[in-house]
Amino acid sequence: RSFRFNAVGAMRRSAASAGKAAAAAAAAATGLAVYHDEETRQSVTIGTVGPVCRLFVRGANHLHVHDGHHLERSLARPAGTGLLSVCNHIATIDDPHLLAAVVPARLLLRGAAEMRWAVCGHDVCFREGSMLKKWAEASKALPIVRGAGIWQKELDTIIAKLQQGDWVHYFPEGKIRQDGRIHPFRRGVGRLVASVEEPQRLQVLPFYHVGLDRVQPTTPGSTSILSRPQLGTHIHVIFGEPVDLSHLLQLRGEPPFDQQPTLLYEVIAHTLEEEVRALRTELHRRLGGELGAVPPEGGDFG
């Protein structure tokens, strides 16, 4: 019993140290803003904060990656081919912590070029004058204005990253959900996919994960984006094959989608939603009763 308490205490001290190290690294990287170009700031931030986030997920918890070869193949995609990864959103630390933990460690140390572009709500990460805004910019995050619709200029910026062959990670549910359900994917993700003219120039990689909602629980009344972590949690991530959407993209010039492209965006969004839902079912099948019953559906946009 004494050993158990000591182990838990050690993990908590380790997490606290990791949090302080991440904050210090982020502050240092942000401080470079005055002296260095954007790419240098991003490389320093990802190369310092990334390993700390990875250590938190892998060292203070138990990470299990299923079918990670799908991610590795997508990371090795041909030059000029964009990568759009999509998954459920269950905790504030889904990104950067989880993504830093699942990519090969060498990716974090090779600079910012190969690492993902994150997408974060303008009201959360990009408030004018906030330290978090400087850190978000230095960690390859892009803003999106929730509620501003699918024609907002922020989505244009994300599309441009995909068109130039970068990796963008996107949460199609729009916000954190900790009820275990897969909520409807918003049609903005459909616009991202449909805006890359040649289907072979974009890979869409789905994955599903569980566990971070217990590591970093939130409540409707939370006033902070962080809460006290529950360490020692088993975190499972399952990747699917890149989704072939070419049959849907062929409909872009056909009625009624030629006049109402938002209808096609909805179809694409729903297709990806079902892919992530299927991964959840597969993970539950593999783990048996370890995860409990699959939650009933019924999520909404609210």
Description:
- The protein has 302 residues and is α/β, with parallel strands linked by helices.
- Helices cover 46% and strands 13% of the residues.
- Strands 1-7-6-2-5 form a 5-stranded mixed beta sheet, with helices on both faces.
- The relative contact order is 0.15.
- Walk across the major sheet and give the strand order: 1-7-6-2-5
- Strand-and-helix sequence, N→C? HHEHEHHEHHEHEHEHEHH
Structural class: alpha/beta
Low-confidence stretches: 1-18
Over all CA atoms, what is the radius of gyration? Answer: 19 Å
Number of strands: 7
| Separation of the first and last Cα atoms | 45 Å
**Percentage of residues in helical conformation:** 40-55%
Strand residues, percent: 5-15%
- The averaged pLDDT comes out at 87
Helix segment tally: 12
**Biggest sheet statistics:** 5 strands, mixed
What does the overall shape look like?
globular
In short:
The chain is an alpha/beta fold and 302 residues long.
Jot down its keywords.
two-stranded parallel sheet, alpha/beta, disordered N terminus, 302 residues, 46% helix, 5-stranded mixed sheet
Write the layout of secondary structure elements.
Elements: H1 2-31, H2 38-59, E1 62-66, H3 69-75, E2 82-87, H4 94-102, H5 105-109, E3 118-121, H6 122-125, H7 131-138, E4 141-144, H8 153-163, E5 167-170, H9 188-194, E6 202-210, H10 212-215, E7 234-239, H11 246-249, H12 261-287
Parallel strand pairs: 1-7, 2-5, 2-6, 3-4
Antiparallel strand pairs: 6-7
Helix pairs in contact: 1-2, 1-7, 2-4, 8-9, 9-12
